[in-house]
Amino acid sequence: MSWTEITVLVEQAKTGDREAYGELVARFQSSVYAMALSRVRDPLEAQELAQDVFVHAMRKLPQLRDPRCFAGWLRRITARMAINRLTRRGPLFGADTEVLDAVEARTRTAEEQFAVGEAVDQLKEGLAELKPLDRQTLEAFYIRGRSLKQIAREFAVPTGTVKRRLHVARLRLKEVLEGIDPSLAERFATDGAELAAV
């Protein structure tokens, strides 16, 4: 899906088109979840946070002046709501042993563990084949969790340049991954959240 199509969906969603908003949720769900997980460090809480972000965004969507800013606007909402959630929750120092005993343990099978390790190795291989600037930009955003503004300061460039570099670097990485593993390239193409596992 192109950014032009996303802009059209945002415009439609602003008029109350729930199907268009559903398409936006499907498109950005993985990236919002990945960002939420990087902030709250708990899969279930990240899932709840992602749902809250989309509910909040749906209510506030008419206030978004420029539909082209939807992705960044969604990232800011996610960051702000994650901070609010962490502030309300306070520090976690442990849990009741009774609560922990009641939680069903979930571990990866050997096959799942192998598949995850293989995907991570392939992503690292793909990143290694990129030019240094492309690799550094992707690593800063997806692996180290830097915001666009932080990356712009780090590289001493405008935020728009960072956005362009991210877009181009993702396309280049997708091309490299297609030569390594087409299924991984397809998963990565949806939103790039796979990089967070590296």
Describe the structure.
By secondary structure, the chain is mainly α. The protein folds into two domains: 3-89, Orthogonal Bundle (Rna Polymerase Sigma Factor, Chain: A); 109-197, Arc Repressor Mutant, subunit A (Orthogonal Bundle), CATH 1.10.10. Helix content is 76%, strand content 0%.
Quick overview:
76% of the residues lie in helices and 0% in strands.
Strand-helix topology:
Layout: H1 3-14, H2 18-40, H3 43-60, H4 70-89, H5 97-102, H6 110-128, H7 132-143, H8 148-155, H9 159-180, H10 182-191
Helix pairs in contact: 1-2, 2-3, 2-4, 3-4, 6-9, 7-9, 8-9, 9-10
Question: What are its keywords?
Answer:
198 residues; mainly alpha; Rna Polymerase Sigma Factor, Chain: A; Arc Repressor Mutant, subunit A; 2 domains; globular; sigma factor; transcription regulation; RNA_pol_sigma70_r2; DNA-binding; DNA binding
Q: What is the CA–CA distance across the termini? A: 25 Å
Portion of residues within helices: over 70%
Q: What is the makeup of the main sheet?
A: none
Total individual domains: 2
Q: According to CATH, what is the class of the largest domain?
A: Mainly Alpha
Rg measurement, Å: 18 Å
Overall mean pLDDT stands at 80
The low-confidence runs, each spanning 5 or more residues with pLDDT under 50, are: none
- Might you state the CATH topology name of the largest domain? Arc Repressor Mutant, subunit A
Structural class: mainly alpha
Number of strands: 0
Kindly report the name of the CATH homologous superfamily of the largest domain: Winged helix-like DNA-binding domain superfamily/Winged helix DNA-binding domain
CATH architecture classification name of the largest domain: Orthogonal Bundle
Strand content: under 5%
Q: Which outline best applies?
A: globular
Order of helices and strands: HHHHHHHHHH
Count of alpha/pi helices:
10
Family: Belongs to the sigma-70 factor family. ECF subfamily.
Protein name: ECF RNA polymerase sigma factor SigW
Keywords: DNA-binding, Sigma factor, Transcription, Transcription regulation
InterPro entries: RNA_pol_sigma-70-like (IPR039425), RNA_pol_sigma-70_dom (IPR014284), RNA_pol_sigma70_r2 (IPR007627), RNA_pol_sigma70_r4 (IPR007630), RNA_pol_sigma_r2 (IPR013325), RNA_pol_sigma_r3/r4-like (IPR013324), WH-like_DNA-bd_sf (IPR036388)
